[in-house]
Fold Flagellar P-ring protein.
Amino acid sequence: MNKHFRSLLALCMILGLTILVGLETAQAETIRNLVAVGGVRSNQLVGYGLVVGLNGTGDQATQVPYTTQSLLNMFQRLGINLPASVATNLQPKDVAAVIVTAHLPPFAQPGQTINVTVSAVGNASSLAGGTLLMTPLKGADGQTYAVAQGSLIVSGFGASSNGSSAQVNITTAGTIPNGANVERSVSSGFDQAGPMMLELHQPSFTTAARIANVINQQMGYGVAEALNAGEVRVNAPGTPGARVNFLSQIENLNVSPETPLAKVVIDARSGTVVLGQNVTLGACAVAHGNLSVTISQKYLVSQPNPLGAGQTVVAPQANVKVTQPQAKLLMFEPGVSLEAVVRALNAVGATPTDLIAILQAMKAAGALHAQLEVI
C-alpha cells in the first residue's frame, strides 16, 4: 500500500512540475521583445516639396502664394525663365505644396529605399493622382539623408457637385511605398568596441535583474549587470562579427518579466476605459444619479379687439423642469475584480462618462487598488 502511495505521490509531483514549467514557459518572453539595444534607433526625416498632376484639386495661388513661388524657383533651377507678366499671373490648379516625412531605420545604407508620407500644407482638396517631385529629406542636423520622388497612393475619395459633397477618409495625405532612396547612413556606435546597453521598453527593477541573471547563466558570470530599472550593461566582444553573434544569442533567451502594475487608463475625450490585469477593489458602496435641468420657452401672443385701440403684444413664457432620478446603490465586497464592477455598472445603465466619474471617485476613496491614468 505504501509502495503504491509513493508511486502515486511521485507521479503527482512530476505532473505538478510539468504544469509549473508549462506556465513559466507560457509567461516567458524573449529578451528582444523586452529591450532595445542602446544607440540602435530610427531617425525622423522631413522635407518640403511639390505634388504635380492633380486634376484641378491643387492649391489656389491667390490664397497660397508660396506654392507658386516654389514652382517658379523650380523652373529657374531647371533653366526655365518665365517673363515677369507670366510669372505674376501664374495660377496653376494642378500643383500642391506638401510636407514629406519618413523614418530612417537603423543600419540603413545608401541605395536602400524607405517609405514616405506626403501631406498637403496648403488648401488643396485632394492629392489623388499626383506625383511628388524630387524632395530632399533632412534630419535634425540639417543634413540630407534621403531623396523622395514618385506617385502617391491616396486611400481617401471625395466628390462634389452643385454644393453637395461626399468624402471617404482623408484625401489630402498619401504614401509612396519605397518612395525615397537613402543617400547617407547614420552611425549607431554598434561597431565600436566596449559594453553594450540593453534598454528596457518598460523600466522594471525585477525585469532588469532577471535579464542580467539569465544572460550570466548562459554566457558566463559577470557578462551582464543591471544598472537600474531601465538599463542592463552587457560586456560584448570587440569585433563586429562577434558582437552580432553574441547579441543574436542573447536576444533569443527567455525571461519572465515582472507582472505589470495594476492600472486603469481613461481617455476622457472619447470615453474609453481600458482595464489592466490584477485590478481589484476594496469594500465600497457606489451611489450615482443624474440631475437634469430642462428650460423651455414659448411665446404667447395677446391680440386686442379688432375695434379697440390696443396693440398686439408678444409675451414670452419660460418653463423650467428639474428631473433627478433615484440613485442606484451598489455594494461591492473586498477583492472583487474591476471587471465585475464594470459589468454591474453597465447593467444599471451607467454611461462611459458615469463610469469615468465613478472610477475617479473610487480612487479618491481608496477603494480602487490600481493606478488611475487619465490621458
Summary: Residues 263-298+314-374 form one domain. The chain has seven helices and 23 strands.
